[in-house]
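Researcher: I'm preparing a figure for a lab meeting and need a structural model of a single chain. I don't have an experimental structure, so a prediction will have to do for now. The sequence is pasted below. Please return the structure as tokens so I can convert it later.
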Amino acid sequence: MEGKAYIHFFDELNDFLTNSMRDNRVIYLFKDTPSIKHVIEALGVPHTEVGRIVINGLDVGFDYPVKNEDNVQVFPISFLLFASLSYPKYVLDNHLGKLATYLRILGFDTLYDTKYNDDELAEISQNSNRILLTRDRRLLMRSVITRGYWVRALEPKQQLFEVIKRYQLSNRINPFRRCLRCNSYLEAIKKEEIIQRLEPLTRKYYNEFSICRNCNRLYWKGSHYEHMNKMITELKQMNLWRTCDE
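Model: Understood. Here is the structure written out token by token.
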């Protein structure tokens, strides 16, 4: 059986479409009865980005079998949904190392390892209930991944601002409490306990230190601390709420 469906993607879902398809009704030709999930992802949009599907005026799920002459509206997942997440956790692909560091600085539970392959990322996301952040939209199309986001920006700081806005995180920032190397929590430690590990200038000018008990890395409020505090202030002042004009 052959058929065609008329599909309209809304708002930021257009980021995934070719120029000719954006903000236009897309005609999709098909054989048999593919699921709407298959159709949406065949057009380039990962299911993790979709919040609502309306076909012929009725809400449907991803397993809906598409029929000839169906009129389909596909809406993005609502930003406001993420405000209900008590404390979101993340796993990042190996293209987002700097973003992982930023998220850990801000206090968010973030797994990252350059050795993770796609299968491992999908498994971690599924089994640990973590949001998968990636630049690979094909990875997000795996059916086992239910929580994920395709990071649009290329520059790490802009990626951070994008994720903070996406998941409504500005009021949940609790910085300088996680190890940047391994994600474990830090503990305060007395200077005299680690003084033999300090360089002369560090020993002279700094008195407050933290340690990661997992990997034994030391932290103190060096020049990077002031820089990060400025960025944190900027993040906390972000206007996160979308308006009808956006």
